[in-house]
């Protein structure tokens, strides 16, 4: 997802937040105390420098009512940064201040550092750490995932394959790759090579059909979370056929979903009206499936 799309998420002035340093200490909470808002930057969840996230904790949060939106940036699994999602952070803080927000980084793929399944596991490690710290943070470990491009692919895969305890309550897929068997990818010999480089083949059974194993459309099941999809009909990076394939898989398995197609490409050229429509639909879906009591 390019920055032009994300900039349009800023619609009203930001709320003021107090900044606090991250801490690994377990805290205790006075039940009569109204907790102040906090921002904890670059909270570590692993040994690699990229295994960090920014955590935005709302004022007045409680373990009973404060649920968490997790943002997963794009960049083709090899680039990008959580800073690319800051305008979505701002949008959520300004319009939905009762939610906690975790804006995550994950280890980017290199020749000797495969993306799959490591990036799925990185997302899982963030959710596990937030769950372990729920008392100290005063959050409820129920999550909504918002991913853009490669981040949407990571989010979709995590939800359908790795979320064994149903902590993820919805996934927002903004121009995410969903079907690597699509002729758009399958007929490109360079992509086949790239998929081999991106994958730790030792992590999958010998002889695995990697385009299927790593495609969310083949992982959808009755346990998949409600999913909201946004695609462009002229996207040169993720074909619109990926959106239709994912819609079909969700529908076949009886999953609650919403699917919207906009005129344009990979999000950077969508109109202001379309972005406003995306915001409205995303808000409604979030409030429906990750409601604040």
From TrEMBL:
Q: Which InterPro entries match?
A: AB_hydrolase_fold (IPR029058), BD-FAE-like_dom (IPR049492), GDXG_lipolytic_enzyme (IPR050300)
The UniProt keyword set, sorted, is:
Hydrolase, Signal
Residues of the BD-FAE-like domain: 54-250
Asked whether the UniProt record includes Cytoplasm among its keywords, one would answer no
The keyword Secreted appears for this protein:
no
Where does the UniProt annotation place the signal sequence? 1-22
For this UniProt entry, the molecular function terms from Gene Ontology, in alphabetical order, are: hydrolase activity
Question: What name goes with this protein?
Answer: Calcium sensor EFh
What species is this protein from? Planktosalinus lacus
């Amino acid at each position: 997802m390019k920055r032009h799309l994300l900039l349009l998420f800023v619609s009203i002035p930001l709320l003021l937040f107090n900044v606090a340093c991250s801490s690994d200490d377990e805290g205790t909470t006075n039940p009569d105390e109204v907790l102040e808002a906090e921002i904890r930057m670059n909270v570590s969840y692993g040994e690699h420098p990229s295994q960090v996230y920014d955590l935005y904790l709302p004022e007045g949060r409680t373990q009973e009512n404060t649920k968490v939106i997790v943002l997963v940036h794009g960049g083709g699994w090899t680039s990008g940064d959580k800073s690319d999602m800051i305008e979505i952070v701002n949008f959520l803080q300004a319009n939905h201040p009762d939610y906690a927000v975790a804006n995550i980084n994950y280890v980017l793929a290199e020749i000797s550092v495969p993306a799959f399944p490591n990036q799925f596991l990185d997302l899982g490690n963030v959710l596990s750490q937030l769950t372990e710290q729920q008392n100290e943070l005063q959050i409820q470990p129920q999550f909504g995932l918002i991913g853009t491009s490669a981040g949407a692919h990571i989010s979709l895969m995590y939800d359908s394959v790795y979320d064994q305890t149903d902590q993820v309550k919805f996934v927002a897929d903004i121009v995410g790759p969903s079907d690597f068997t699509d002729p758009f990818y399958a007929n490109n010999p360079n992509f086949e090579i790239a998929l081999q480089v991106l994958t730790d083949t030792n992590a999958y059974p010998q002889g695995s059909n990697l385009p299927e194993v790593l495609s969310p459309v083949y992982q959808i099941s009755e346990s998949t979370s409600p999913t909201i999809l946004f695609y462009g009909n002229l996207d040169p990076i993720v074909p619109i056929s990926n959106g239709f394939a994912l819609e079909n898989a969700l529908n076949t398995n009886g999953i609650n979903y919403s699917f919207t197609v906009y005129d344009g490409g990979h999000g950077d050229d969508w109109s202001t009206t379309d972005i406003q429509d995306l915001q409205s639909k995303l808000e409604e879906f979030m409030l429906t499936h990750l409601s604040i009591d």
